[in-house]
Structures are given as C-alpha cells and as structure tokens.
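Appendix B, example 12.
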Amino acid sequence: MKQTPLYPIKFTPILKTKIWGGEKLKTVLNKQSNLTQIGESWEISDVKGDTSIVSNGAFKGRSLKELQETLKADLIGKKNYKTFGDKFPLLIKFIDAKQDLSIQLHPNDELAAQRHDSFGKTEMWYVLQADAASNLIVGFNQKVTPEVYLKHLEAKTLTEILNVDTVNTGDTYFIEVGRVHAIGAGVMVAEIQQTSDVTYRVYDWDRVDAQGNERELHNDLAIDAIDFDMPDNFRVDYSQIENTSNAMVSCPYFTTNYLKVSTELHKENTTDSFFIYMCVEGTAEIVANGVTEVLSKGETLLIPAGIKAYNIKAKDATLLEVYV
C-alpha cells in the first residue's frame, strides 16, 4: 500500500438521522439515501465508530484510520503526524437543520481529555443556504454571570440572554470552545471542526422523540465549560477575490480559506499539511499525479500532504479550502 501513488481521495459520506434533520442534504447536496430526517453528512471522519471509507481510486474500501496508520506523514504532514499520530485531526460535515438544534456548547481540550478521552471541539460554520428569516444563536447578547445564566436556564428563558443573528448564504461563524450556540431551523451549513463528538446540550426546546422521550441534557458538565468572558468576535469577515485563497478562519486547529474558481489554478503545497476541499457551489476538477477527480456541490475531497503540486479547474465553483 505504501507504494501506491498518492491521489485526490474521496470518502463515502456517513449520513446521520437527527430529530431536527430534513431533506436538503438529499435534495440540494445530492446525498444518496433512503433515510429521512438526515441532519448531518460526515464527509471526513476519524471519530471512533464512524471512520470514513475511501470511495475512489486505489485505496477504495480502505478506512481513513488505515490510511493514517499506513501513510502517516504522507497523508497529514510531518508536523501534524508528530502532533496527532494516527488520529486524523479534523471532522468535516454538512448539516441541515429543518428544526432548531439544541442550545449547546463544546468543552476545551483539557476538559475533553479529562472527561471524555477526546479532543475539544473548536469549529466553524459556513452557511450554504438559509430559508427566509432563519437564524443562528451564537454567544450572549449581554454580559452574563453564571448566576444569571442558571436563573434563565431554570426559568426556560435562556433565549432572552442569547445573541440571535439572521443569516444568509456565505455568512461565516467561528465557534470557539465554551461558546453557547445553536443552528436555527431552515439553515444548512458546512462545518469544520476538531475531531470530536463531545457536545454539552443545555436546552432542547422541551421536544420529545417518537417514543415521547426528551434527549439528555448535560447541564452539570456544561456550567464549568462555558466561557462567560468570551468577546463578541464570532462573525467572520472575508474577501471573495476570484482565483485566490481568501483567509476566513485561522486558529491552532485549522485554517479555512474561501476559494472561488473561474479558471485553472496551479497550487503548490508548501505548508506540510493535507488539504481538504469542500465544494459549496458549482463543479470543479482537481488534478494531481495524473489523476483527475470531479468535485461537485456537496462533495468533499482530501489532497494528501505528500502531493506537493496540483491543479484546480472550474468555470464557476466555490470551494472551502482547509488545512492544519
């Protein structure tokens, strides 16, 4: 397997039914499934029990875990392999919220390691589509103390102290650990995050499943994980210059650029990292080591770190470019 030439790798999406999920991942992003209420498409995952499987080329049928253990730095880069070993560092998703998601937050690396043997969950959202007047909850709309927060939580008036933003396609948010948030009904996003499935759910709108059961809340864990002093810096401003990588989010866990392609671009990998491309509009071709892969809206592709040069061709495509 080590001798197999590297190429642009695609994976079979892992589709997740959710109580709040809808049909857009099938109707808008062309995910093939007989499932209903699909809330999430895990595009690239190394979460235990949900490891992505290669869907193209010589590695077809292999798991991301197998690739990581075999290719090592050739897959993710020398510095990343030194840091993460055989754990792939990112979880890449598309999310469709037909109903409001629960109000939630994620713990930092220290708490996640201590409590769950996991990474923390810093993440970002790029809005692919939003119905009229749909919104996101991100952060507080005023200075909040733990005492004030708990008072509102008990009274089920939490929304009175939360920041609510009406959103449109292209709006981008950076969700740091400890920040209370929720995706609102009618919103579909691309989500880039650390490899973690640790979420603290603090309020779920009192809804119940088909059996009449409410979902578990995690308020005892959450109160210590909330950052009540976090600044209002979650909205991401970025340029949209064509045929260049426009910086969106750069943090210790990942960098994401906005890339609108209307020609053929030659890319040199000088960062010692893999590159992930999420197609959020249009269709592009990615050519590396003599292999051409078509990337259509709703698809995701991984360029191994061992590929040092490749081309991207499109007449009108929008990609999110991600690396560590």
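The chain has a mean pLDDT of 96. The radius of gyration is 20 Å.
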